[in-house]
């Protein structure tokens, strides 16, 4: 009886554990976004694979981001991605000194950055092969 339970446990582990070690199709991805060496805050970073589901993350004041594949899964699918950014006006609007109800755009020194790397304008590609915790997106 104990042997059957042990065999069942081993089979269960063999099926479940391969996805826990970073060997699955989605791997954790985090890093920093900067423009001309300065961190970009209040931005959404989008990774769009050639096939499959896109991932997205938002930057903090230091330009750090962590991608989410879906609400329960952090990371991005393995493979080549087109990367683009989008300004997060709502996050910028919630900062101290912002005028309530007034639309906020990117800082003047970053407007060209968002124009060049947003949506279909961006030609940036990144290949995700393994878990990445220090990805540096430093664009100029």
UniProtKB/TrEMBL annotation:
Superkingdom as given in the UniProt entry: Bacteria
Gene Ontology molecular functions: carboxypeptidase activity
Alphabetized UniProt keyword annotations: Carboxypeptidase, Hydrolase, Protease, Signal
Entries under InterPro entries matching the protein: CarboxyPept-like_regulatory
Signal peptide: 1-21
Protein name: Carboxypeptidase regulatory-like domain-containing protein
Organism per entry: Limnoglobus roseus
